[in-house]
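Running log. JK asked me to keep both predictions on one page so they can be read side by side. First protein, sequence followed by its tokens:
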Amino acid sequence: MLYLRNGAVDLGYGCGILLQSVLLILVITGADLPDAGSNLVLVGYFLTSLFVRLSVFLNCTLGVCRSINIVSPFYHVRKAWITAATATYALFWTTIIAFDIYSFVSKRIFRIDLYISKATSLKAEVGWSVLNSISYQTAALNGVNSVILFFVPFVLPALLCLVLMFLQVYHLKKSTGTTSNRPAITILIVT
């Protein structure tokens, strides 16, 4: 189930990047984009911003479930809990990204080339509008906000996955005498 969800999210991310690549080529070549092009930029920004975060979250969830299964092989992880956590995380980021898009469009600071280039990179700073609306921006706060917007959705899950990997290696090494853990070792090596 998690592998299927992760694959679907990565496919959505790829579609967003493909859409943005086509639009970026049109902007670079100087083609005039109609208003529909602006909407496509918003769709591409939404897809890439949401799906890259969901992909990291689902990979982290997959690492947690694998660690639980390795440490306690007879414990059954409930699919409903994973689905609820994924839906909550997706709804959280959808709300923040929608607020960002609303802020871009309502403040009339929409520039297609800037929007595409920010959305194409991982440093799209999703959530900037929320942080701008609740705090007064100074140079120090702006730096802290950028760290928070990158650290929470990307660095924390990566660190958690690293710790989980060491936990998996420890428990698999401890039980190296049996043949039942060979598939788990192979999956750990491949991933």
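And the second, directly underneath as requested:
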Amino acid sequence: ATSVDGVRWRRLQGSLEDGACFDPSADDGAFDCVHVGVGDVVRLPNGTLWMYYFGGGLDDGPNQGIRMQIGLAASNDGGRSWERLCGGRPILQPSEDGFDALFVAWPRVLPPWRSANVPGIPEGKWYMSYHTASFQGGISWAAGAAFSDDGVTWQKAEGPVLRGTAEKMR
């Protein structure tokens, strides 16, 4: 969609079925072959758009698609079509046994030119926040953070930056 004022939006037709501009991967072995969702889009200084998205695949077990991971795609036509970057591999994955072992999803990204002077973000670094959950001992939600020098290769901050439980939401 496009907007001149951020209030009224006009849908743009993508090149895929029903006017979509991005679909799950057609490769059954891909991390994002079951579903995809948009987290954030960053306009690079050269005009290219980078989309940080999340997707789920055909994981082992009964809950296929829940082990979501974060991917990166680029558009040079204003977002009408997207090409997966990094060979279609995820740029951020769940940990083996940490607070974000179930999934990493809903990325929000600040490039260095947007994060300058933001407390807690090192100068010149890209910043990503992401959501995760755990079902051990009841449901709990958390937000994690990661930093990057180039917007592609990410290093997670240790532990969650925010936690919550369903019980505390009542």
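Observation for JK regarding the second prediction: Residues 72 and 87 are 10 Å apart (CA to CA).
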